[in-house]
Amino acid sequence: MILEMKVPSPGESITEVEIAEWLVEDGDYVEKDQAIAEVDSDKATLELPAEQSGIITLKAEVGDAVEVGAVVCLIDTSAAKPEGGEKKEDAPKTEVKEEPKKEVATITQKETYASGTPSPAAKKILDEKGIASNTVKGSGRDGRITKEDAVKAVPAMGTPTGGSRGERRSKLSMLRRKVAERLVSAKNETAMLTTFNEVDMSPIFELRKQYKEDFKAKHGVSLGFMSFFTKAVVRALEMYPAVNSMIDGKEMISYDFCDISIAVSGPKGLMVPVIRNAENLTFRGIESEVKRLAIRAREGEITVDEMTGGTFTITNGGVFGSMLSTPIINPPQSAILGMHNIVERPIAKDGAIAIAPIMYVALSYDHRIIDGKESVGFLVAVKEALESPEELLMDNDIKKALEM
Q1: Angle at 298 between CA 295 and CA 301, to 5 degrees
Q2: Is the pTM value of this prediction over 0.70?
Q3: Which of 8, 244, 255, 403 is deepest in the core (most CB within 10 A)?
């Protein structure tokens, strides 16, 4: 029996996917539920499992965009598993495919009177630049050197010759293309501005130094910076609800919950999973959810539902060493907070110069619905909470807040 395997729907709004990689070869014997391909949608990379065991015949190539419901391979379920798991060969089919390739290769490499001979225009360029024609590969008919070949052979002024000058082209994945479209859309369709501030991270450093070992021993997760930032953002969003809103046509939608998107670098590019109802989570709950989502994103197991929605985004360029940046809004959201690296810097404290671990933070926002007063006030509120975490994030009860 021949089973037609069709592309399943990764999500309600997705109509096509792209074959990112075949994990098996044409003619292989596959087992039921074995991962046979990776497919890219505009939101995530998903694995395609075999629906039955049998010999597989591929019907799409890597890079092909296929509609949801289209047949991408056939599985002969009546075929017996080869001994030793060897691939089923089809010798006549293979020879038919390979023979024309050999003939074409022979024709394109055939030497004629024109091989290596420059055209008059090409000869003039090569002579002027003192370049021997036998060092230039011709792309014209029968290997003839064209004017374009001669121009390419001339080194740029002031550039030393002899080094490698190769280039490589590769097709952008569907996920990367979608990210590119969204970023351009965010820049073109929003009135985006960015405001900056700095945060003295000394109080958080002291809290982590004192409690992180006990916190990890009790809860099985580290007490990182993300829980403090998420708590500070939730507090600021409640103070400035316009930042927790978005535009829909001629209307503004405001939310009474905080779904915080966190930017995570995955194997296929940037992914933004969502921490749902962050306002209801404890420090332990936030750290556990951040760890779970980050692992799933990096292992390619994240689902579309886990990346859909979000009312505000936090991105941390500091893990890569970024000192300062202007993060781009994650549409249709209206604001994004950028974290950066922590560096010891001289600051004024109590009328004296002191050295403290400082982080620069940036808030990019859509000026269409968020005014300057609100954006600056929001970022100041985040700064205040991070610099006074015991009072503003823990209600002056550290052990209770950390569930110690």
Answers
A1: 80
A2: no
A3: 244
